[in-house]
């Protein structure tokens, strides 16, 4: 819990920095920042299932894509105000997560991973070939953010506002009894059954909430990118939040966001001078998996533990081992 | 419905199924024994195809070029598989599922770009020797004669694997390891060596599959992406670690694909994924897999 | 001790492969009992608990809790009804602190686990600390539970089980791994809970001094079947029970 109070103050700084960003950097980097926010939200929602519940979903992009299409279609075909589109995205994604999640939560481990992958692909192919409704592999073009949001700077502030709000909501969920229960399920699902909790139902609820926030992220993406395609649902898109979470560290709430900053920044940087981005990120992932299993946060934790125990030793305190990690 | 059309689709499905079998059998074997889902399996398959092309290119002026390139490519892939196993896969034996999956996923990305760097972006085409160039006629229906070759290779690999697993001492050890790693290592047989052997075998077959695929149409970047998910479906439907399951699964997927072309052209993959999802829901260990895997 | 039947097990059977783990067991408990089930290793004590608490499906037979048929109910439903258990091998949350372990049970019992927005750290403080105090774990509240001693882990097991505010609790070797002093503390607590709040308790133990010191009724299991039942003295004098125990305890 000490980490919490430590985090509060630097979060404030980060937020002020984020507000000041467009005043300091050019439009290109504002675009990058919007991407960091949207994909970061996507990744944090993924981590509700991965870090918090302990299951690897390789099909989270299904809900991201559904959210993107919900907002895209409503905006382009019916000129619905953007906030309502986003709400609709969350609902649509939530419904999908409810239907698909019902089956997914009956499995765990590799079977859960493969079923989520299969469902993600299924949704991809459905969108791909439902040409009349979704535009198929032509995708949906001309998704223009309404009014003042047309400018990158204003859209950035809009996204910052929405994503911050979503993160705060997810933070509360994380710290709530529900959040603790999900971690209990991750740690020892059996025991959790024996204290009176219907584990499967809780897993489904968590899956739906995570799906809803992924849908919100997808909804923000369409107007930003001006167009969307069925690719948003496939397993490559699903891999992105996984990468981000692993790089940043799955056991901390902000891990995926840190991962998003690193990933997106790196991608913007690398694609500037080479087309071999997959090679780059592949090597980064391999490095993190082999040598930094807790991600950036894990590394920081380790250093802090060493620092703290050295500090306590220096003060002659023997209870360094019982210190809360 | 025209009978000859049905038969043609059947054969097409069988050929496709056999191709999938060649890819999926290695995948299934590796997962069955080592519990590692090798996302990069199709990427290595593609590398096999490219190597086959390169060898053929070097031997273009000789008629037997293609026939030699195929086994050569497979052997090169076996060597690559050995290096990957020793350098990378070994480090994640004891790790959790997400880390293993991510490692093989990273390999997909790396291999994709390495292929691009080595062979460039243009499609590669192998000119087939006249023996397998033209059509062959069964009951007056023309079939691509190369199909026959593919089906035969698939058949021989299936028989070969069956013989290996059922009739040789090493095969018995491998089958035992699918059921219980602890037992096998308690018997004094070093597990890492079994793992290496199995992985190399799996990649050898993948390389062979790629090399066999190479002369069909052209070799393009990104072919591995299209095929890897289908290979997963095959293994899920048939059951991990089961040779018969992989064979049956491959043929099912191949035929579903071939026949759905007739009445729902774009829906082939939707159908396959629905079947896969249903199997995962109703019987996660597949048609022929062992329930213990749960 | 009130005269109501709280648990009624009828002709319970369970086989694993060829092994009959539970062999036509019928058992009854009255509210407020403090009883024990003993038997050599493999006699089927844990299986018996598993069948009643929904961990395994029964092959045949019925389980009634306060006249309600709970046979084959899922564990979470059974716990909510008022039955809790402490496991033989500590089944805790090793990466959470002792406090968080117990609080998880308390929050679940208070039906607050679907609360999405109140920080959990503000809730259930009193109840959780109370449980930690009576099980003697207040000092270790902020310790990562995986680092607790064996005996403390068993006490945590008990605290978690009590967190569900059960009417009936199964304790599977509650004093395993404990020192003499800890054993006495734990069993005195068990006795107090039984007397003061009328908690019905069924425990298994290998330590015969504990069994004879605290159980008012004893049942002996052997190869899945009950072979003796009665007060501890009656059972001690029972020939078959002696044979089963002396034979095994060579």
Characterization of the model:
The complex is a heterotrimer of chains A (325), B (294) and C (250). Helix content of chain A is 75%, strand content 0%. Chain A has 325 residues and is mainly alpha-helical. The relative contact order of chain A is 0.16. With 294 residues, chain B is mainly alpha-helical. Chain C is of the alpha/beta class. The interface between A and B is large, with 37 and 38 residues.
What order do the helices and strands come in, and which of them pair?
The complex is a heterotrimer of chains A (325), B (294) and C (250).
Chain A: H1 2-24, H2 27-49, H3 61-78, H4 82-104, H5 109-129, H6 131-134, H7 152-175, H8 177-187, H9 189-193, H10 199-225, H11 235-248, H12 255-270, H13 277-291, H14 295-314
Helix pairs in contact in A: 2-7, 2-10, 2-11, 2-12, 3-4, 3-5, 3-10, 4-5, 4-10, 7-8, 7-10, 8-10, 11-12, 11-14
Chain B: H1 3-34, H2 41-58, H3 65-87, H4 97-119, E1 135-138, E2 141-144, H5 145-167, H6 169-179, H7 181-186, H8 191-213, H9 223-238, H10 243-263, H11 268-282
Antiparallel strand pairs in B: 1-2
Helix pairs in contact in B: 1-5, 1-8, 1-9, 1-10, 2-3, 2-4, 2-8, 2-9, 3-8, 5-6, 9-10, 9-11, 10-11
Chain C: E1 5-16, E2 19-30, E3 34-38, H1 45-52, E4 60-65, E5 68-69, H2 75-81, E6 83-86, H3 98-109, H4 125-134, H5 150-163, E7 168-172, H6 180-196, E8 200-204, H7 208-214, E9 217-222, E10 225-230, H8 232-237, H9 239-248
Parallel strand pairs in C: 3-8, 3-9, 6-7, 7-8
Antiparallel strand pairs in C: 1-2, 1-4, 4-5, 9-10
